Amino acid sequence: MAHEGVxxxxxxxxxxxxxxxxxxxxxGDTQIDTGPPNQWSTIRRLLDAQPxxxxxxxxxxxxxxxxxxxxxxxxxxxxxxxxxxxxxxxxGYRIPPIQRMIWGSPLPVETQPLPETVPMAQxxxxxxxxxxxxxxxxxxxxxxxxxxxxSGDLYLSKSIRYLRADENxxxxxxxxxxxxxxxxxxxxxxxxxxxPQGHLALREKLDNxxxxxDKASALHGEGVESDEIINRLLGPEDWLSKLSxxxxxxxxxxxxAVEIDSSKV
Length: 265
Known about the structure:
single chain; alpha+beta; five-stranded mixed sheet
């Protein structure tokens, strides 16, 4: 797939509706994120055809940074990474079994700090926007001259039904609100794909999260138990929750949603 100066190629072992495939986006010789480690043989062939000279990472998660060490070694470059993720990238970190199955395990990699602005040969700069919530180090790249946003895992979908145990829903909503203050039209999501009306889609996601918080808080205020709130709003926990040991679950989402006053986000 391509969109006016940006190339994208989708890779992945599975496609089960839980963002298990990944799109590698590229602007000229600048690569954004790396794809999952278990797709390296495919990714290597793609990159060998036009070796990157610069690698930008949105955050440390294995599907986004899992091939950073291999890319750094093969193409003699040093990845640029958000400061809050650099220590994890350097020392490695534990990956839950379901995520190892879907994406594989990364190798440790040394990085350099991601600058606030990255000059582009195509004109203008990519601006690094810190957007925690999904991960503490999650960073989006805004290209104002083109009206583009490379959203990392900020978007994913207009509606979400699960939350990882280490995600912070309030921070996620605040980060979306922060990005909505920027001017952009096209959103590049590495899982969902290219979203032409990206600003509107991200606005709809925030509205949907606010509505979920309002409904969950109202039920909680009526004394409804957590499991019943989950059932009413999202349906019962399913195979994904159980297979992940509830690291990824609807309960994680609802337990945080009941505590959020959406009018303050």
